[in-house]
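FYI - complex with flavin-adenine dinucleotide, inputs then prediction.
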Amino acid sequence: MEKTVGIIGGGAAGMMAAITAARQGACVTVLEGGERLGKKLLSTGNGRCNLGNLALDANQYYGSNTKWISKVLKRFDVYDTIRFFQGLGLIIKDKNGYLYPACEQAAAVLDVLRIELRALGVRVLCNQRVSKICRNEAAGRFLVTAGEESLSFDSVVIACGGKAAPKTGSDGSGYMLAKQLGHKLIPNVPALVQLKCGESYLKAVAGVRADAEISVFSRGECVAKQRGELQLTDYGISGIVVFQISRIANYILREQEEVQVVVNLLPDYTEEDFGQLCIIRSLLKEGRNVEEFFTGLLHKKLMMLFIKMAGLKPDIPVEDAKEGQLKQVYELCRNWRLHVTGSNSYDNAQVCAGGVDTAQITENMESGLVPGVYFAGEVMDVDGKCGGYNLQWAWSSGYLAGIGAAEK
Ligand SMILES: Cc1cc2nc3c(=O)[nH]c(=O)nc-3n(C[C@H](O)[C@H](O)[C@H](O)COP(=O)(O)OP(=O)(O)OC[C@H]3O[C@@H](n4cnc5c(N)ncnc54)[C@H](O)[C@@H]3O)c2cc1C
């Protein structure tokens, strides 16, 4: 007899699971809480959808079980993703390893998925926010409740996403469903998000962008380092370089520990090279004021800020400045310390770290506690770095969940 599969959540992972299960011959229904499928997908990659990355590797992911993540990714890797989408008619472009639809429209990715769902006869029910999954032990089936209605399935896939960008439908209700079934949850924090800093003077440099290396310090120890374009805002720091370290900062702050970010705005210089540069620059002192002396080193707004932070007036002759103060300005260029107080909320986060504990999920994405229940996508305790890794996780886990649920 044909297996019936209920997919809860019609995002990237849910659509992948639905297509895979239907291709295995199952009778598939997608229950989507929002008005339409794949709303979040449309906003990915600034509307261009970075759907994968050739540098796929478990090191691009966080979660309490990275060996398990690695095994899952090997079973449906980036080349499987490329083949899958090419099979749906999508032309894929490789930009230094970052994969996009060649037409640079996220809508094209959503469209090919929707067309395939229709071709496979998958039933899509929108505006159906699932609040309960009950297992009927005797019948070996699941009763899924959305509003007043209940539907029965042989197996179910929970693909509700996390809490990030809740306007796209992911309101954290997937965690509640997993918990109802007895699953352990790893605490959540916003990830791939801007960080807030305590330094009110940042207003003076808001809007400045600069190539930088940033190091995250907690309890005097460096716990993460990233290089890339730093964006300064009136409340803190942003840019992909900050997104990449935000989940680490947020988990430390969650433990009530302090977090500092040390910014090196001249990351190409070794300490020795920089020392040499300062010696050569000292030849420029004659006839210049402090502002003029430092001109050309960094963005003007940053230079003016550091001059002020060193207690110097920009218009005094540089010869009148104390050596220690000039040294302090130079020091700030490479060791500018900011105190992180928090991050922007889930509204601004691209992903949600934490989620269903993967120690309770098999490599087939099946619940180790409730056979017949599968998980796909961000609802699990897996979050990737920027660069197409989160959608790859949705495709890989969605594929395996779809196969497993159809076979059950
Ligand atoms: C602005 C932005 C840009 C991003 N850009 C990229 C990028 O370029 N590359 C990349 O790899 N990743 C990107 N991401 C991350 C990526 O989009 C997500 O990791 C991925 O979409 C997660 O897929 P998912 O299917 O698990 O969850 P979601 O896409 O969140 O889908 C979950 C679905 O489940 C539905 N749902 C929730 N609860 C219920 C319920 N109780 N009943 C029924 N339905 C429910 C929701 O309405 C939603 O449609 C971006 C994220 C954002 C917010």
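The first strand starts at residue 4 and ends at 8. The chain has two domains: 4-187+355-407, 194-343.
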